[in-house]
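Hi P.,

Sorry for the delay on this. The queue was packed all week, but I finally got your sequence through. Input first:
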Amino acid sequence: MKNFINILKSSKILFPVLVTSIFLGAFLFYYIPYIMEDGLIKNIVRHSKNAVERLQMEREYYTLSVVRDVKKFAPQLSFDYNHEGVNAKLPFPTTTIHDLSRMYSKRSDVKFSLYSNYPFLNRKDRVLTPFQKEALKKVKENGGLYYKKDFIDGKPVLRVAVADYMVQQACVDCHNSHKLKNWPSDKWKLGDMRGVLEIMTPIDTAMGEMYASRNRVLFASLLIMLLLFIYYSYLLLRRESQLNMEKEELSEDLKDLSAHFDKYVIASKTDLNGIITYASERFCKISGFKRDELIGKTHSVVRHPDTPKELYQKMWERISNDKTWAGELKNRKKNGGYYWVKAVVMPLYNHKGEKVGYTSIRHDITDKKKIQDLNKTLEKRVAEEVRKNREKQKQMLHQSRLAQMGEMISMIAHQWRQPLAAISSCSLAIALKAKLGKLDKDTAIELSEKISEYSQHLSRTIDDFREFFKPNRGVEETTYKSLVESALSIVDISLKNRGIERRVDMRCESKLMTYPNELKQVILNLIKNAEEALVERKVENPVIEIVSYKDGESAVLEVRDNAGGVPDNIIDKIFDPYFSTKTEKNGTGLGLYMSKIIIEDHCKGKLTVENGSEGAIFKIVLEAAV
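Then the structure:
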């Protein structure tokens, strides 16, 4: 309980909730009776006015119907205030109000009475009570209605006084001519207030019920508030406990953060004169000064001569005007070295908002500055390396083309061997028949046509060789079909001689905008590599398949073989320069490397390799023009 009271006093939420609950309970305690009593009074006043109106209507009916008919049809009857037990006498209209008031008063707790400041002589001894006098006065002032809470015999009552006006001419005439009048004959006229009708209603029972209802509502409200208070007290106490734990954890975290800040952040504080009052461990470490060598000094102790004085002047001008300064500074170490920092310097204020000094947070950018200095010469060095690489690529491309030329010459020699033998055979036949005198015209023509045919074949072979190695004239329109046909015209004889079946399926008819000779060189290189793999591995029923097809917006050419594929341990290396899988010593290792350079750098395409079910699949992917 003591702990709860202490928490209640110190809590910024629980105590205000308790005080609010108390004030709310007190407010309800007094306000509920007030609004209920106000409603009760208004209700009684409304019923009282209705009761007065009923009495007035009864009198009006009596005056207009009974009195008028009596005067017309029974003139022998007279009207008198003392009509009870007296023969041939009827009550005056006003007397009926008095009689009805007594009758109603006897039958209920509600009391009715009629009085005025102008009684007839038979009531001249009547004495008005203080309330009646007050009511006659207030009714005139308040427009015909006055009510007041009063106590009769120690019990609360509500007294409602309603004005009684002259509304019938007969009433005016009667009052002005009555034998018991005590006023001039022209005293009354229509609309004059003749007196008041008062209804006095006990309200002790209603007030008791009202207070009982108040107590029930108040008890229920207080019970709900108490339950809510207990519930929220529990929540708040639990939350407060959690906050205290979090506060302790946060305090520990702040200690760790402060320690890390001191250890890893270059920071310092100064007074308004720039005298250092705090220096972090990191500041001491990077500058080489001990903390006591910095405290009490200005930052000029680490100012490097290379830093212009104007920079410090601008810094002081800005922070003196309560603004933050940020920039890069070159600082001096104790051993004469230097370090670069990116610094933020800002004014420091106390809890009252008064400026008490300045604080600085700095970040070591020495390496960045060194890199910037290095980058100043880097562009030239990179450009030089790029130039060298391009030269190297040109040399490697030239070397690759020379290697292919050697292979081409070997293939030409293969292709020329049979035609040359045929030409030699035809020449010998012509010479032999001529010596024997058997060279007739038809034989001479037939043999010469064969020699001509073989010569043209040799010429076409030379043209193919020359076309293949013709320098590029730039980007041209071509197709996979024409490129493959051109490459096969060179290598076809070699494939046939080695018993290699070739299968060609050109399904892609799209145009290509590329370098035809370079692309032809790549296709020829892929076919020759497949040929050599098949021969080297002595594959039975060797096959080279060349397929083209469309894949979306791309044109694809695949060169496949059934030589078993590329070993997994080297498949990622075969496009490296000078890497060769040939068992013979004449492989340069540049063919596939230069092929990849040509396809990906020059033709802006893609060259890949993967192993299929029977062998390697080299894939060229280029963007289709149409």
